[in-house]
Model the fold of this input.
Amino acid sequence: MKTTKKIVCNIGLLIVFSICYNSIIGFLFVLLVIIGFLVWTSYSIQSSIYCDAICKLNTDKKKIALSFDDGPDATHTNEVLDILKEYNIKSYFFLIGEKVKQNPAIATRIRQEGHLIGNHSYFHKGTFPLQSTNNIFKELEQCNTIIEETTGEKCTLFRPPFGVTNPMIGKAIKRMQSKQKFDVIGWDVRSFDTTTDDIDKTIHKIIKQLKPGSIVLLHDRLSTTPALLRRLIPQIQEMGYELGI
Ligand SMILES: [Zn+2]
Done:
């Protein structure tokens, strides 16, 4: 949040500078900076400008958390759970409501094995961020309802689809928070595992960003995730990190 405030101040100074010099180039430059800033705040969950997101564990110890988005997946989530069980690691799973309805036994297994379940919208459509506050709120409620009906536990965590936040999403989150605990969980290590099948590349990307308290973003719907975990977990442990939540 401090970084965001500094950036807002810098943009303000640029605007003043531009007006003072009455320069079209200066004005266009400021306009570009503002557009860039708006894109950054929407796509960076860490900007925390539309909602406060927890992007790190509250620890200075060498502990990190793995988080998995877009499940429960009928093909790959069970294998991911098997591996986590083998290493006795608890993680975050941000579930899509529609998939919970399709795969209730997997959602139940995630809960029974001690992982934390979060809301990741009901449909996870590309148009999610473009909807009205009302519709976003309804979708968040719908996802919470199916998670609660399936696992028997109230869902108090949320991760926005694509990590995108904007004023409508921010207002819908606040409306949820006025009714119940509803913490927004982001990440500080983005693996970009959806963009490549090259496991080495993804592992390298994760390892070089790891810090005490890091939350790593992964996807349990990917066919590469089980193989990635089998190599990533021992490497992280060899670096002296504990994995958990
Ligand atoms: Zn997602």
Observations:
- Residues 69-70, 120, 124, 161 surround zinc ion (CB under 6 Å).
- The beta strands are 53-54, 63-71, 92-95, 116-119, 157-158, 183-185, 189-190, 215-219, 242-243.
